[in-house]
Specification:
Elements: H1 2-12, H2 19-26, H3 51-79
């Protein structure tokens, strides 16, 4: 956005020797995250009331449920002889 304005003003004035063209380039408005194009301020963002507490209450049960599922699947695979660690690999010494 800013670059297009700069290039348009450069094209309009073929030489930048004039002070009007330089002043026009320096007066380009800066766009920020907290303002609209018109320059009006944006409203304050909504604040999440239970930020860190909500993350903790989400992550810990997720880890516990995932660990329980993986433990049960490992037991199932070992009971059905689908995956049994072999003892032959330990004799490499």
């Amino acid at each position: 956005m800013v670059f297009t304005r700069v290039f348009q003003s450069v094209v309009r004035s073929s030489s930048l020797a004039t002070t009007d063209a330089r002043a026009q380039l320096l007066r380009l408005p800066l766009r920020r995250k907290y303002t609209y194009r018109s320059g009006a301020l944006k409203p304050m963002p909504d604040i999440t009331p239970f930020g860190l507490f909500g993350v903790i209450c989400t992550v810990i049960p997720g880890l516990l449920i995932g660990a329980t599922i993986s433990k049960n699947m490992a037991n199932f695979l070992e009971e059905n002889d689908l995956f049994v660690p072999s003892d032959d690999d330990d004799d490499d010494d």
